[in-house]
Amino acid sequence: TEADGRHGLTVLGATGSIGTSTLDLVRRNPDTFKVVALTAHSRILELAEAAREFNAELAVTSDPARYQDLKAALEGSGIEVAAGPEAVVEAARRPSARTVMAAIVGAAGLAPTLAAVARGARVALANKECLVCAGDLMTAAVADSGAVLLPVDSEHNAIFQVFDDERREGIEKIILTASGGPFRRTALEDMRAVTPEQAVAHPNWSMGAKISVDSASMMNKGLELIEAHHLFAMPESRIDILVHPQSVIHSMVAYVDGSVLAQLGCPDMRTPIAYALAWPARMKAPVERLDLGKIATLSFEAPDLVRFPALRLAREALRQGGGAPTILNAANEVAVAAFLGRRIGFLDIAAVVDATLARLDPKAPASIDEVIGLDAAARRTAEDLLGSVVAAQ
Ligand code: NAD
Ligand code: MG
């Protein structure tokens, strides 16, 4: 709580899908939240506009080459301007923000998210890749600092709402639901030729490009399996994945007495974001209300591990442990970028991840520097493998 009584909030990745949904809620609750810092990589004019609208103390671009543009856009506003990855970390450290929304995409969010954790902030965590690539170090840092991790990912937010952490012995398993993405019914032969446009057209959610491709390959659910393992300290064997195309049940917790608790809602990220921002209280969110009578039917099916090998790769990486999830995540980031850049085909994404995992020693990284080193090595290996994937076609 700040001097003016409002809840200080910093948004990392303020121009993205999660970032703008977060600011939409802040806009509707001007007496509740005070924006401290906003960061973004590109879309400098949108960043500057948001910084002015919310009267942020500080605006940061992670891209040093965009410093002058941001400075020019904020001329005369009195808003501090900074640039570069280290400036994003400094923004995350600002103590006047009680809560940090971690909504950068990819392992690029690791250092700033850790900085927020290290100062004991409330961290609303959308950036699942940072838990995938450094889960053990992240949870150890949370335990050290007393930070609170509030899951924003809709599945994990759902589990968080119905997971009785005080009576963990009563919990049998958690069930992550998955929409199945745009290719749920696409034959394997046809998946070979799908375009980036088809892959990012998610049936239920409007999201950034990278997570949309991850949803299409179901690597997103694989990353979420690893994320759930770290957030809820559950072994891989007790986390199930269930395809549920309507995305109404956001996930479930099964108890030893046969009870299953679920959280439901229309698919709109402003619900889990509102829960993370207001926790342990509730705040109003302007989302469509769930009308089950109108929806009438909820359906479920088992995931198809043949058409969606990413699910198997992620499960194996979690089972193997050590550095395997770090390698999986880095290789996937490279492969998804290559697919979006039309350098490889859709099915090559999982092939590149698989081949990268096979090439590297998955020794557990013992420090953040070692995570960063392994992430970089996996990116180089995956880049090299892109060529052979293309050559094989
Ligand atoms: P997005 O692409 O829409 O936005 C990403 C944000 O991160 C932007 O503000 C961008 O400027 C910033 N960014 C990109 N690269 C950066 C870098 N190298 N350094 C610093 N900042 C950088 O992505 P999104 O869909 O909002 O997703 C953000 C995170 O939330 C991802 O980890 C994603 O998996 C997770 N998530 C998103 C959704 C969703 O509905 N969009 C749901 C669940 C989880
Ligand atoms: Mg999710």
Textual characterization of the structure:
The protein has helices spanning 17-28, 44-53, 67-73, 85-93, 110-118, 128-145, 154-162, 188-191, 196-200, 209-217, 219-232, 270-278, 292-295, 309-320, 324-340, 348-359, 368-391, and strands spanning 7-12, 33-40, 58-61, 80-83, 99-102, 122-125, 148-151, 171-178, 239-243, 249-255, 260-264. It has 3 domains: 7-152, Rossmann fold; 153-304, no CATH class; 321-393, RNA polymerase sigma factor, region 2, helix turn helix motif (Rna Polymerase Sigma Factor, Chain: A, Orthogonal Bundle). 47% of the residues lie in helices and 15% in strands. The mean pLDDT is 97. It has 393 residues and is an alpha/beta fold. Strand 10 (249-255) and strand 11 form a beta hairpin. The termini are far apart. The chain is built from 17 helices and 11 strands. The protein has a 7-stranded parallel β-sheet, sandwiched between helices. A 4-stranded mixed β-sheet has the order 9-8-10-11, with helices on one face. The chain is globular. Helix 14 packs parallel to helix 16, helix 15 crosses helix 17 and helix 16 packs across helix 17. Residues 13-19, 40-42, 62, 88, 103-105, 108, 126-129, 153, 205, 207-208, 211, 269 line the site of nicotinamide-adenine-dinucleotide (NAD). Nicotinamide-adenine-dinucleotide binds next to helix 1 and helix 6.
In a few lines, what is going on in this structure?
With 393 residues, this protein is of the alpha/beta class.
